[in-house]
Amino acid sequence: MPDETPNPLNDLLMQVNTPIFAIQTEDGINFISKDNNFFFTAFKENTGQSIKAFVPAVRLENLGDEGFKKRHGLKYPYIAGAMANGITSAAMVKTMAQNGMMGFFGAGGLCLEKIEENIIDLKNSLKNKPFGFNLIHSLGDPDHEMATVNLYLKHKITRISAAAFMRMTPSLVYYRIKGIFEDSKGRIVTPNHIIAKVSRIEVARQFFSPPPEKLVSLLFEKGLITQQEARLSACIPMAQDLTAEADSGGHTDNRPALTLLPTMMALKNEFMETYHYKEPLCVGLAGGVATPESAAAAFGMGAAYILTGSINQSCVEADICDDVKKLLCQAEQADVAMAPAADMFEIGAKVQVLKRGTLFPVRADKLFKLYRAHTSFDDIDEKSKQEIQEKILQTKFEDAWTSTKEFFHKTGNTKEIQRAQNDPKHKMSLVFRSYLGLSSKWAIQGNLERKMDYQIWCGPAIGAFNQWVKGSFLEVHENRKTAEIALNLMFGACVCIRASILKIQGIPLPIGADLFKPMKKKEISFFL
Known about the structure:
- By secondary structure, the protein is α/β, with parallel strands linked by helices.
- Helix content is 44%, strand content 13%.
- It is built from 21 helices and 16 strands.
- An 8-stranded parallel β-barrel has the order 4-5-6-7-10-11-13-14, surrounded by 6 helices. It has a 3-stranded antiparallel sheet with strand order 2-1-3. Strands 12-16-15 form a 3-stranded antiparallel sheet.
């Protein structure tokens, strides 16, 4: 049983399955918990009392969009987002599925063998419970992107989280439309679902539109899809579900959630009117969701679901070293910075990372500026070259190039090597990118020799979360469990929503009545 609270209204607010009545008496307002029948049985005689306000039950399973939950077999509208290099681990995906939610395994940056190993593990463990894998746009290696899609189709992975896409690609379209058919009632059935993670309007428009005809024709000409699949593709959106990605960790445009979510929802309505899709489109929210208040705000604005990332990285199930988890637990909202992205280095794309306890953002930015200003590594001034080789690469440039070549040989992407041998600027880019790529792996492995170079994808949400859990059992990373945190956020959101309903009816709340502090799963279960 949960700890007793000194505030009786707070206790009533936490009884989320039961309505609350504010009763006006001669002595003031009293709060009681009764079912809806109280409307008809109370005060049959003139007692001088009246119902001043009413708060309905706000159940966890009623948050979000019913269609979204039904489509994916979820009890709760909550997703643990994919963090690349397996940081969103199989263990994290399992615990989400086992608690009525969904997680996406962080397949980005992993080799096909490692991805397949986790596919088999999750399929054997979860059977028909909902889960998914992510697909990050591979700008420089479209063959790997297609190979990953083929792996998902081979193993019948029916949900993917599509991230970092700037335009639709053949592999993404292939995944979406492969296997679609009409059932006996003429309804179009789409076996493969894409949940797109998007922060830009122009990209959201592409995901809410049917697959591009040009790419559909290309796939048909190659014999990858049937004529029926090509024909039916015009009747479905690329993604039924879209996550409005606000100020998040990793790839982000730092969009404010308060402006991004309503814009994406308006876009959703526009495309429903234009295409008359049989199933409604849904928009969820990610980026900055880290407290009960932010979760309540998301659902209050109409989010179909919420998706978290940064806060999950500090949990026990996250496949990253304990040193990183400790740094995350100490982070405040201002302890993040933008740094060049390894996968889209040349075009200047950036990712949001933790800057507290690491020099990675500063060093990565220096590499990018030198790359933009010079045509080759040899053109860089001697002082900068020395700093790069001694402090950042910690080896001679040519030795770093040898290691980089070996990586591309191993992955089969020899086109990059050939291009670099003819273009010294591209050679410089690949070596600098190798540092960016390795820095995230050092953080996962806990390579203490490279601790100051850890690349830790993180948004300001972690700072808000740390402030909320300060002084509670969730303050330390050893106690942070992904599903338990998710239940806290949703249960706390229900408490916040109920408190807001009282406020908008003109009922002043006692100090602290609307506050929700972290509780253990078994304590939350008492109220459910």
